[in-house]
Amino acid sequence: MNHARKPARYELKPGYGVPESGIYDVIHDRCQSQVIQAVFVAGEPLPECRFCGSKVRFQLRQPMPHISEDRDFQL
């Protein structure tokens, strides 16, 4: 289980729009989910955890633009 909490720098809550595309740490509230990192695209709403619901939090670990955000690959 993922019980470790990092010092709060900038934690995002479910329902918030993703401010920047990239890899996010997923910080659960004492639940059995094994998801500890996920990729999100800017503007997407952050999801709730199916185990700890709206108590899950997200922190940007590594900014990484999605290919759809790169002008060289836009139609």
Write a concise synopsis of the structure shown.
This protein has 75 residues and is mainly β. Helices cover 0% and strands 23% of the residues.
What structural keywords apply?
single chain; 3-stranded antiparallel β-sheet; 75 residues; mainly beta
What fraction, in percent, of the residue positions are helical?
A: under 10%
Strand order of the largest sheet: 2-1-3
Distance between the termini: 43 Å
Helix-strand pattern, N to C? Answer: EEE
Q: Any idea what the shape is?
A: elongated
* Unreliable stretches: none
Tell me what portion of residues adopts beta-strand conformation.
15-25%
Rg, nearest Å? 13 Å
Biggest beta sheet attributes? 3 strands, antiparallel
Question: What is the mean predicted local confidence, pLDDT?
Answer: 89
The number of E-state strands comes to 3
> What's the tally of helices?
0
> What structural class should be given to the helix and strand makeup?
mainly beta
